[in-house]
Amino acid sequence: MSSATSETRVMTDGAVLAVDIRQLSYEYPSGVRALNRVDLAVEKGQCVAIMGPNGAGKSTLCLTLNGVIPHSVGGAFYGAVHIAGLDTMTHQVHDLARRVGLVMQNPEAQLLCPSVEDELAFGPENLCVPVSEIRDRIHAIAAAVRIADLLDRGPADLSGGQIQRVITAAMLTMDPEIMVFDEATSALDPRGALALFELARELNRTRAMTVLMTEHKSEPVAEFADRVVILNNGEVIDVGTPRQVFSQVERLTALGIAPPQVTRLMHALGFSAEALPVTLDAAEAMIRPKLAAAPAAPSEEDPPRGDGHDTSATRGALAAPVIEARDVSFRYAGKIDALRGVTLTIRQGEFVGLIGENGAGKTTLVKHFVGLLKPTDGTLTVLGRPAGTLTTSSLAGRIGLVLQNPDHQLFKTSVADEVKVGPARLRLKGDALETRAREAMQAVGIFQMADRHPLSLSWGDRQRVALASILAMQPEVVIFDEPTTGQDLAGRTIFMDLAYALNARGYTIIVITHDMELITRYARRCVVMKRGRVVMDDTTKEVFRHVDLLGDTFIEVPQIVQLAHRLSDCGVPPNTLTVEEMTGVLKRMGVGA
After folding, report:
1. pLDDT over 90 at 355, yes or no
2. DSSP code at position 68
3. Structure pTM?
4. Rounded CA gap, 265 and 261, in Å?
5. Rounded CA gap, 79 and 85, in Å?
């Protein structure tokens, strides 16, 4: 057990440590060892990203920073953790909460109050902050985090991304010295995620606030983090600047961490690790002179996608519609217009990406497809029948929805029993039921967890359980609502490759995601929503030609797409979408090491 006393360590260069972790090891009460001899020193005012595959110990490490581990969770705790000079073993969670704000991976677990404004006021009220100052903090932070228009909303009226922003704002209203974000951008739209990183950097600069973030997306980390910590199997295996860490492309990929797209691009073109850029500006600066000197020109044809996924957006052009919405509108209680005149047709066998900012109406729309909601106005036809004549139970076996929060779909005490619920209600029994459940678990890689309690699993594994539960019913249409939230590279690849494989077998796939790299790689049609309306609906290549229009919907396009647009004056096709495509284009243009 830790025996260190409260102290603030000062480095030899005079830097004061905000976080000082020495030889930290931790085992959960179940006996699972999550951290092993972790040493980490974070200077006051630094922005540090913690990256690693699922199960590396990132969330566990975050919980040690505010004393939840060991005071609330228990288990075996060895070593020492000092936060702003306080030993977490000798100070309780309520003492540490004044100094450390933690936004958890599942922000719904942190909601306490009936309205957003009350949520933001709750923390400073408990710290006895004067009322006038609380009001000032709420309005300033709500504006910074883009939730000023949500202050009178209740939690039930918020999307997953909006909840994440609300909890972030609630932590910031307590004015902590240290902010810890555990996958806090996972459910945010790309612009929202970028805004959170910019806010973190601004807090660094203006308030000397220390920021630690666990994160799977390397592109913003390369732009904003001072240092990157790589965690694997509970151990710190690398610490360095973004360039030092991300230049190890093959090593990181093997660990389940995707370096920035431009770094992967230049590595594929044969450049040495020392020369690899990690930011968009640096990549453009390297490539532009080489294009100017290169004699070759690219083909006028669309470049090959290079990912082996050849599903066509037009493959189902003549297929039967499975979903037809005509001028569909929907209003939540309190007169919140979530959908406004949506007209949309989805045909059998399509692979459709549904994208847009948090609160655009994406989840509300797909809930109509499975009968969880009914239109306030307009007409909706599902599987050839008016939606009003269909019950949720009659649709369940034909249209599967994997919800944004998997915990909303988990009810049983074992994974196997959970996966059997759906097919059992479809009247499968005996060996047929066992076979269906086994095949579904094997398809998503959780068969070895069959006897585990679903809620004992990681967030990513709980998502897989929810997906297996849907697949076991063998629906015709599968809707994924943010299926890769909180997933590492391997997890994201498993989910999306599975979606592709289902599509290749004739399933209709609809994916809601804020991960634009996945959209450009897998989806062949994109539907873009903004404030309850469909504002674009076309092939993915055509949609991503319109970078400015996408920006108006708070979508930040992937680095490769941005690079293609920047280099279009040099002959690079602006509809180049993936690393593989860009590699082929640049090689044909004579760019390479």
Report:
1. yes
2. I
3. 0.85
4. 6
5. 15
